Amino acid sequence: MNWTEEQRQAIEIRDKSILVSAAAGSGKTAVLVERIKQIIQNDGVAVDEMLVVTFTNAAASEMREKIVSAIPEQMNRIHKAHISTFHAFALDVIRRYFHLIDLEPGFKICDEAQKILLQNEAMEQLFRGRFQKRDEDFLLFLRLYASSKNEEAAKSIIFNLHNFLQSLPDPFAWLEEKIETLAWDEKLFRESVLFREMVADICEELESVKTDCLSVLQAVEEAGLASLVPKAQADLQMVEEILANIEKDYDRGVNRLKAAVFQRFVVSGDDKAGYGDIRDDITYLRNRAKDSIKKLISRYCSKPLKEYISEINKTYPVALILKGLVEEFDSIYRQQKQKKGLLDFSDIEHYALKILYDEAAASEYRNKFRYIFIDEYQDSNLVQEAIIERIRREDNVFMVGDVKQSIYKFRLAEPEIFIDKYERFRKGEDPSSMKLDLNRNFRSKEPVIQLVNHIFRRIMTRRSAGMDYDEAAALYKGVSYRGPLEYKAELHLVEDRQIEDENLDEEIVEMKKAELEAHVAASLIKQNIGLPYYDEKAKQQCFLGNRDMVILLRSAAGIAEIYCEALEKEGIPAYMDTGDGYFDTLEISVFLNLLKVIDNRRQDVPLLSVLRSPIFGFTIDELAEIRVEHKTGSYFDAFLYYSQQGEREELKQRCRETLSLIEKWKRKAKFLPLPDFLWELIRETGYYSYVGALPGGTQRQGNLRTLVDKGAAYESSLGKGLFGFINYIDAVRKGKIASTPTKLLGENDDVVRVMTVHKSKGLEFPFVLVGGLGKGFNREKGGAASFHKQLGVALRQVDRDKCCYRKTLLQNIIEARQSREEMAEEIRILYVALTRPMDKLILLGSVGDAESAMKKARNQGPAIPSKARNYLDLLFPALSDYKDILFRIHDRRVISVEKLERPDPERMLGKAIAQGFDVDKSFYDMVAERLNWTYGYPAALINKSKYTVSELSRRHEKPERRPVGTEAASEGAQRGIVYHAIMEKIPLGADWNWDIERVADFAQDLVRREILSAEEIESVDLSKILRFLESPLGKRLRNATRVYREEAFNLLMEKDGEKIIVQGIIDCYFTEGDKHILIDFKSDYLTDKPENIAALKETYRPQLELYKKALEQIRGIRVDETYLYLFAVDRAVRL
Fold first, then answer.
1. Where are the beta strands (DSSP E) in 924-1017?
2. Which of 234, 279, 228 lies closest to 260, judged by CA?
3. Which of 479, 1021, 1074, 1087 makes the best surface tag, with the fewest CB within 10 Å?
4. Is 188 left (phi over 0), alpha (psi -120 to 50) or beta?
5. What are the b/e assignments for 488-503, b being 16+ CB within 10 Å?
């Protein structure tokens, strides 16, 4: 492969810790794999002397496969490699050193929903205990921060602070330190990072005011408005003086800020005509500048600093109470986890870090790993960074990532770690470390790269995103193609305002903003299907198909469904690949409401939902009639009353039948296993068939089957019963835990995908449409408490006597910082979206008046990201001077005309039906003949076309059986799966010297690679694996010329005169010279009595005969020996 100079350096440089800033499409994974390959091949480093850390299991598996593909000779050693997620590595640390932290070794990992349930229980226990003690501090905290209705607001503060602390290496030490800052006097405050942060925020806001004033000055100068130029200059000079004073002398600068007065813009007679053209833009800019000044004064300068500090000091005693509550909550929650033998995901990293503070444990890993690789380094958090610091050497860490693509701040990722390290490495002060930039893009064509660079040079700055989009950050073309198949990017604006025009299509008139935008998106997708493009990897021209196209959205909630419906209306198959929204789907929402009603009928909203649904089929009029008969109490009371005393007999009978069914299902729920009950309910209600007939029916049925699976998973490990399952689902929904709808499609299915930008990270597509650009940012609103890892903890000051509350200065400082960080995240998300396309990029957003919005952008000067309300506010100013983009406006009139011009199958069919059909009478005879046709070979209907080997193999008498393995063994079938999985994966060969310790290490590696679980490994006796390997048959297998394992086959056979296909999987066969030996592993329970062995041979003989026949017919080989290996009695039996 032809590496660039920067890639070559990243691959070849040794004896340094290297930070690689790898831009989108720069081939970072290829570089990482090549570096590992060369270190193994050229430097003699074993693969198990490396630690490779990624952030997802999928990425870890992909990395493992790529390394094996690049170095095939490492296949037999790859199971020893430490290629895993951070969590998997931390788990390995805990399992090895659990004794250092007094942890029981048999722990399990609880999922997010179970975590929420346990936390809710811990919170209830905390509150119950404090109430019983009549704790005065606790009651004070509730008076200040709980609402008059309940304590949820106070609980939320405790929950939020506790969850925030989990991202810190030493959470409670941090909390104690930061709470002490609330007691500082003015002198300490002025010397602190808090004061510097406040001044920086004031200066940044003043810089935006200065930008607005400068834009005003340029506008009046260009318009030749001589009477306004001096006034604009005076405004600009005033702001510059305030800014200079704030930076040098805070108090003096604040006084100047509070005294700021903008000039009155009164134009002379000669300038009035010219001013009219730009009045609106000038007014907008000046008002924005004035509002910024007012906001600064309100936030920081409305009272003396000493008074602000006094307000902060008043929250100190309450913060100490909060600290105690959080510590007690953590203690109760930890005890609950210990009782159940559980760890949550944050425990994994914290316990691993605690272990690694032990120098003996840390030094073992430090000595073991000669190289450490961290992929997607920009998504690290402080705890993960601390773990790496404990095990790294001075010069052995290779970190690769792109801070411009750090979009997981909501998961507590810290892009600042990357940025800070990049700056330190760039200065070159440490000779053992260096930074490299990979910025040549091998994904996108020239027009896409030019657009991305143009936009982000204007909106990604150190002020807005924590870094400058400079020459080192910019993208450079890496693809070789130049020619007519390079397409300009397009910006399409949808005007959602109404137009008075009686000729407009009625459907278009009624459409809301999202529906209009989705309609235009579907039209654009349809226009581009079949568009030729050049495939750089295949080096040939191709044509856009559905699978080559994707629609990206910032948020999918409530929007993705609309896009999919619009695509389906255009006859374009679509798939909503959003990674979330499972419980929001129609079929699941309704069915969960049914479960709630079965559990407790007195829940009006779920009850009405189910009654109105196809499950019971009541009409709105009928539901209203029931309510009118009994207007007081709950709706259930009215329904019950009508079932007994209703006026209309038919409706009364339906009410009785409905209640009877609900009562019957409630009884069944008590004794049936949960998955059985769910499946029976789905079938009995006819709901499964109903949703299957809806658009996307296969997907909807798959979602229902997944709900049954969730029920089985819940009952197998979390709890029992319908009530607990409903609470579990509610916890999942309340915690906003991602639950992906059942995925029935693969990556090669020919559908247009609709997905979120987060879901698209790491992917690429020939055609990308980025929609929803006019949708407002979902900015977090400040609450009663604010937290920031650098700035600390702030509480709202509450005055119960005066019935008022106010934000403290510290809260304002923290919220301003968080607002900037949120905007930086939005800019990075936009960068990820715009760097997905390979060939064509379309931008789509909705506005009220497109021409006005674009004109305003042209006249308002450079973009000010902090003022942006949506992505269009960032894009308009950035694109106002960009010529290489196609721009088009779609208003309701344009959309209506386009719709009328396109063929509409539904409209054409409706017209044809209305006009009637002239049908030839002979057609009726043909229809009757076809409907009355019968198959001429009814006997053939008895046999299936496909059989498994097990179905065809007869079972004879069952031998006497006894348990195998440990007491914790699972059911026999599950144990058999575990034995087979081990035998499939275990390395073979004469050079492998197996003993029980090595077998156990290999088994733990299967757990680490998530091929098997720890519980599954514990269910089998690993010594039986060793005994097989040491048996005569095992030794022959290890010395075999070639070994084949888990070989699937399809064999054509004849059964009852019909051709059938037999499918099966052969456990193992191997070659020994010119001989072929077949082995089938069995884990059945049995004793070693001769009659039982003989019976087992006869039981499995038909199966082995089919395997033998398959090999001889398909592979063209002769099977010389056939064996059953029986793990139960540790012996091979020849057939």
1. 946-948
2. 234
3. 1074
4. alpha
5. ebbbbbbbbeeeeeee
